[in-house]
Amino acid sequence: MNTDLQIGAGGKLQHLLTIEGLPPEILLQILDTARSFVSVTEREVKKVPLLRGKAIFNLFFEPSTRTRTTFEIAAKRLSADVVNLNIATSSQTKGETLLDTVANLTAMHADMFIVRHGESGAAHLIARNVGPHIHVINAGDGRHAHPTQALLDMFTIRHYKGGFNDLRVAIVGDILHSRVARSEIHALTTLGVPEVRVIGPRTLLPRQVQNLGVQVFHDMEAGLKDVDVVMMLRLQHERMNGSLLPSAGEFFKSYGLTPEKLARAKPDAIVMHPGPMNRGVEIDSAVADGRQSVILAQVTFGIAVRMAVMGILAGN
Amino acid sequence: MYIQIKNGRLIDPAAGSERAQDLFIADGRIAAVGAAPPAFKPDRVVNASGLAVSPGLVDLSARLREPGLEYKATLESEMQAAVAGGVTSLVCPPDTDPPLDEPGLVEMLKFRARSLDQARVYPLGALTQGLKGERLTEMAELHDAGCVAFGQPGTTMTDNQVLMRSMEYATTFGFAVWLRPQDATLSHGGVAHDGEVATRLGLAGIPVCAETVALSAILILARETGARIHLCRLSSAEGVEMVRQAKRTGMAITSDVSAHHVHFSDRDIGYFDSNCNLIPPLRDMRDRDALRVGLIDGTIDAICSDHTPVDDDAKQLPFAEAEPGATGLELLLPLTLKWAREARVSLPAALARVTTHPLRVLGLPTASITPGEIADLCVFDPEVWWRVEPAVLRSQGKNTPMLGLELQGRVRYTLIGGRIVFDTPS
Amino acid sequence: MTLPDAEDLIAKLAEQIRRDAGPRVALVGIYTGGVWIAERLHQMLGLSTPMGTIDVAFYRDDYKRTGLRAGVRPSDIPFQVEDADIILVDDVLYTGRTIRAALNEIFDYGRPTSIRLAALVDRGGRQLPICPQFVGAEVEIASDQTIELRRDQSGRFNLTLIAGST
Questions:
Q1: pTM of the predicted structure, to 2 decimals
Q2: From CA A71, how far away is CA A82, in angstroms rounded?
Q3: With an 8 Å Cβ cutoff, is A28 touching chain C?
Q4: What confidence tier does C165 reach under pLDDT thresholds 50, 70, 90?
Q5: C–B touching, 3+ CB–CB pairs within 8 Å
Q6: What is the sign, positive or negative, of the torsion defined by CA atoms of B24, B30, B35, B38?
Q7: Which of C117, C29, C115, C26 is nearest to C79 (CA)?
Q8: Which residue of B has its CA nearest to A211?
Q9: Which of B243, B240, B292 is nearest to B265 (CA)?
Q10: What's the rounded Cα separation, in Å, for the pair A217 and A201?
Q11: Alpha-carbon gap: A73 to the closest alpha carbon of chain C (Å)
Q12: 3-state SS string over B43-79?
């Protein structure tokens, strides 16, 4: 079906909905452009006039202060006008349909929608139903994708490791429910990382996940051996009480990142986390605040990467 | 009324034959095949040159949405869709609102259908009150009101004791029990087949074991009780194999598959096409292929449309929020023909899956094109291509995985009881 | 027509700047040609202030038509722009739009005391009120032609005329 929804005529990116299906050239263009935006964020006037006059609407159907704020800062640094919409979606209070909301906002001359929604496929649905000059960025849809997070993580990896060709990368935690994990896997494999590992208990690994091009480990120590990058995923509280996991304590014992477990990785391995962290559940404070952690850098780079995505899309 | 159908190719699935012969209809029945009866003066001569003539299609599952769900579709529109699809008899599942668990509701439905004077409607009664899976319905009363069998279209009942007792009760009267094998807890929260596609798309999965665990319970209890079971909408390779083994031991079971499942797999979901949100879910290509093999070797007896009109608003939502279901009455014939072509099955054998076999499942007399038989017929053009688009569908349900795709085979005339109820100019 | 020798023009520019600008002057080159020239000038003039490099991609006025091009490089101004005397260096001065973008970009770093422009080649055709204070040569070519500064293996610069409109 339509992977061509993302890429329009002339191979130019029209929407950023998922990393899956994007050629490495487009990913690298975003990373390279982001480098220029990092230098913008390092000077006194952190703005450029690139998107002046453009209206960017943050459509957050799922609340998220962090991600929304990052996008807002990025948009403002491009001199765009930003409108934030937090739309509650309980099925009881369902008023306007998703597409009606989008149609109304389009009538208000939106140029770009940044969408976060609790259901997989929401960003695709919106992208299929907007006019030709409106761009959609997926800020997270259900369990499916979070492409800007993956891009900023790739930027971070390239910043610290120089490239992707010789790396072993491990993604640890609740892969089953994670849109971040899916996007990371697509980005890493597209950019040519030779070994991508997923580590987690069987209940938190999706069916046939190895078909995405990863090696599956249930033993964290074995999975972390000699890796260059450790990507920890957030474990949501709901998961700990159902029939997927018995408790946070047991999860931390087997899958929490402690200094001892980290020692199995290469001595110069970097530790990443998309945030927000659950200290003591998936990651020990000693590691989160330790010298191998690049978690704060991820946040900084996140703004530059989102500026790059918006800057490229709005001009296409 | 006297009708002559001229120059058509008569397909008789019961006899397994295909022959170019004229057909003569009088007083609602087939009067003669081949040569006209003496002094036959037709009121209407249908020129069926280039067309096939077969018994009318018998659809084992078509939701008419009445009573209660009229905002989705009405009896009028869906009965129109049925005859436009060449369907002359259909079974209507009990999951209306309220469910068909009261004789009065069944009588009303039959009355409404009869007054529209189109396809014959055979209501499936609810097996339990409110379809809740707790208390038995008055099956004998419902049967008298016109229910042809009893079923639970939703997930298999969680209480196996109730399931067993409902089978025992039904068997008392010789009623068949129709069940959809899908375990409630294993399929809980799932919206797509639990496999690579769901993993990529981040959709909650319904594993194959949701079907096989339920099948296992159903088959064991059926053996215990001697109940006559019809399994609705198989979806997996493992499920087909279980039914095959059960049939080998001589169990009185029959099964069906939905026409969409014969052709589509979870790959067709693409990037979240909610037209592919169906119950049971479209499984992977291996499962689809096993369903096709099951149709050929008789493990699966019939193809049905599982016609489920859904309004557009309910589909224009993220996949998991969309309402499952697809329109099917007007697609049953061409989808069956498509399968026949691809599987190299003869036309009579293919049409048997939508005519004589469903009648056998229903315990009704078989249809054949012989003098004396009631003239429920479908006259169709097997070659013509057409594109599936909302404007050409008579059903109010416009959503199907086939939307925008082309099919070969279209009904030109439908006759019920010797009357032409659907008629298209060429 | 034959274009002047790029190396000669650079020497000429260096001489002009040496005569007119003080020792604390700061060079800022515009990618790519302007950066090459600024590097050479910086070396020849022995300037103490490190040079800056800018890519005006985020300040161009044609973004709406052509979008963001690939290959944008990070701008880097390693000296204090506030109160600086800056010489902007570009290879070919034409409509003046690139210079306008460069001026806006520099002002987002701070308030310089002055900005002057050094262009290797001025081909006329200005669409904005921009003029260079230091010029290597004035050249007249057809509007469907472009002049490109190239650098060979040995690091020697030359100017090439390219036909066909952009």
A1: 0.91
A2: 9
A3: no
A4: low
A5: no
A6: negative
A7: C26
A8: B196
A9: B292
A10: 8
A11: 17
A12: CEEEECCCCEEEECEEECCECCCCCCCCCCCCHHHHH
CB pairs under 8 A between A and C: 54
CB atoms under 10 Å from CB of B186, counted, come to 18
Residue B105: is it exposed, middle or buried by C-beta count within 10 angstroms (0-12/13-18/19+)?
buried
B window 273-292, beta carbon within 8 A of A: 273-274
Chain A hits for B203, CB-CB cut-off 8 Å, are 120-121, 142-144
Confirm or reject contact between B264 and chain A (CB < 8 A).
no
Q: Are C85 and C25 in contact (CB under 8 A)?
A: yes
- Residue whose pair of structure tokens reads 């910043």 in the numeric block: A159
Instruction: Report whether the peptide linkage leading into residue B390 is cis, meaning its omega lies within 30 degrees of zero.
Output: no
Q: What are phi and psi of C160, to 5 degrees?
A: -125, 140
Which chains contact A through at least 3 pairs of Cβ atoms less than 8 Å apart? B, C
Residue in C64, C75, C110 closest to A44 by CB:
C110
Predicted confidence (pLDDT) per residue in B25-59, tens digit: 999 999 999 999 999 999 999 999 999 999 999 99
- Cis (ω within 30 of 0) for the bond into B99? no
Answer for the pair A199, A264: CB distance below 8 angstroms, yes or no. Answer: no
Across the strands, what pairs with A135? A112
Q: pLDDT of A29-87, one tens digit each?
A: 999 999 999 999 888 889 999 999 999 999 999 888 899 999 999 999 999 999 998 77
Q: In this structure, are residues B184 and B155 in contact, taking their beta carbons and an 8 Å threshold?
A: yes
Asked whether at least 3 C-beta pairs link A and B within 8 Å, the reply is yes
At residue B365's C-alpha, the angle toward residues B359 and B367, to 5°, is: 70
Per-residue pLDDT tens for A205-264?
A: 999 999 999 999 999 999 999 999 999 999 987 766 678 998 888 999 999 999 999 999
**Distance (Å, rounded) from C-alpha B270 to C-alpha B268?**
5
Q: Which of C63, C104, C108 sits opposite A315 (nearest CB)?
A: C63
DSSP letters for B165-187: HHHHHHHHHT-EEEE---BTTTT
Residues in chain A: 316
The reply to whether A225 touches chain C by the CB within 8 Å rule is no
HSE (side-chain half, CA atoms, 13 Å) at C83: 0
Residues of A in contact with B316 (CB under 8 A): 97-99, 125, 129
Does A142 touch chain B if contact means CB atoms closer than 8 Å? Answer: yes
Quick one: what percent of chain A has pLDDT higher than 70? 96
Cβ-nearest to B318 among A20, A120, A206: A120
Contacts of B70 (CB under 8 A, 6+ apart): none
How many Cα atoms occupy the beta-carbon half-sphere of A3 within 13 Å? 8
Residue B313 designated active-site: no
Tokens of B110: 């039959």
Cα dihedral A224→A225→A230→A234 (10° resolution): 10
Beta-carbon neighbour count of residue C127 at 10 Å?
A: 10
ipTM of the complex as predicted: 0.92
